[in-house]
């Protein structure tokens, strides 16, 4: 879970994006991901030496008008998109959520799927990037560091992990899927996902890797790097941040997460006293479910 820091880490991470399409030297091999109800890509171009293979061209991500600070997310996403595309790589941003946002600093978690063309073959992979930003003087946000996810290699699976990985009602981006495949995620998280998936189709954004180690702006250790939390960005096909998403859908999901054993449920609505429920600007765009064990 170590992360590169400062300017050196920023350049290392950008090099990893540019050279490997959102992968780095410590990443596992290509990771299969569950399907989405919407197309990921449109037809792309074909390099001259591979006439029968086409590299997908991913559509550009755009923020919701209801976002707390759309310009902050755009600065993070455009950096990842720009450095993740070349004649042999393509990247699609699945979602961008806050890892934390304060007056002049922020963490944006850019959840990616990527493709790489090599020797006439296209492989798929992906990472989640913890993009750090600052602003001032002036309103513009500036990227200061990028920390790529490092899920670790696949390992033994519990029955709950196998069921989550096989579920068609739990949509896992590549880094989250690799987290679960690594065998490090607590069964409390996995059984909660399975329980929620009986009533909801879940779009997971972040599980363990790619999330800030500490609760943003504090020295408190987050439940995510301890593999005791997961974030949901989409419920039954509706993004949490979308102003058209019914409030009752999100609040019902938050209460269901608590009923599945989460001691710490965060989201855009405050449903009760802490620590059971909380709400803030960071969680305006997703539902957090944390577990004590």
Give the number of DSSP strands.
14
Largest sheet: 7 strands, mixed
Mean pLDDT: 86
Class by alpha and beta content: alpha+beta
Helix proportion range: 10-25%
How big is the Rg? Answer: 18 Å
How much β-strand is present in the residues? 25-35%
| Element order: H for helix, E for strand | HEEHEEEEEHEHHEEEHEEE
What coarse outline follows from CA principal-axis ratios?
globular
Oligomer: single chain
Summary, kept brief:
This protein is an alpha+beta fold and 293 residues long. It has helices at 6-20, 70-83, 159-166, 174-181, 187-197, 247-259; strands spanning 41-42, 57-58, 89-101, 105-118, 121-125, 128-135, 141-148, 170-171, 202-204, 229-235, 238-239, 264-266, 277-278, 287-290.
Topology readout:
Blueprint: H1 6-20, E1 41-42, E2 57-58, H2 70-83, E3 89-101, E4 105-118, E5 121-125, E6 128-135, E7 141-148, H3 159-166, E8 170-171, H4 174-181, H5 187-197, E9 202-204, E10 229-235, E11 238-239, H6 247-259, E12 264-266, E13 277-278, E14 287-290
Parallel strand pairs: 8-9, 12-13
Antiparallel strand pairs: 1-2, 3-4, 4-5, 4-6, 6-7, 9-10, 10-11, 10-14, 12-14
Helix pairs in contact: 3-5
């Amino acid at each position: 879970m170590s992360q590169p820091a400062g300017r050196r880490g920023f350049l290392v991470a950008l090099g990893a994006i540019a050279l490997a399409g959102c992968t780095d030297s410590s990443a596992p091999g290509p990771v299969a991901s569950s399907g989405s109800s919407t197309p990921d890509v449109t037809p792309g171009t074909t390099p001259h030496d591979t006439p029968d293979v086409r590299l997908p061209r991913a559509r550009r991500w755009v923020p919701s008008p209801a976002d707390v600070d759309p310009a902050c997310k755009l600065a993070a996403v455009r950096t990842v998109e720009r450095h993740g595309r070349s004649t042999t790589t393509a990247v699609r941003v699945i979602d961008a959520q806050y890892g934390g946002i304060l007056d002049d600093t922020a963490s944006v978690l850019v959840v990616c799927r990527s493709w790489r063309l090599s020797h006439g073959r296209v492989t798929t992979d992906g990472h989640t990037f913890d993009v750090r930003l600052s602003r001032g003087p002036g309103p513009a946000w500036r990227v200061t560091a990028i920390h790529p996810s490092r899920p670790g290699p696949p390992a033994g699976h519990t029955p709950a992990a196998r069921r989550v990985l096989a579920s068609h009602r739990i949509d896992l981006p590549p880094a989250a899927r690799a987290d679960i495949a690594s065998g490090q995620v607590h069964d409390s998280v996995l059984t909660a996902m399975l329980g929620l998936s009986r009533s909801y189709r879940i779009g997971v954004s972040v599980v363990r890797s790619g999330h800030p180690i500490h609760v943003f702006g504090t020295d408190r250790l987050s439940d995510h790097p301890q593999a005791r939390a997961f974030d949901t960005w989409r419920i039954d096909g509706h993004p949490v941040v979308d102003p058209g998403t019914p409030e009752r859908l999100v609040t019902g999901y938050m209460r269901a997460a608590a009923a599945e054993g989460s001691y710490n449920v965060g989201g855009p609505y405050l449903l009760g006293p802490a620590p059971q429920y909380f709400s803030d600007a960071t969680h305006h765009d997703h539902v957090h479910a944390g577990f004590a064990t």
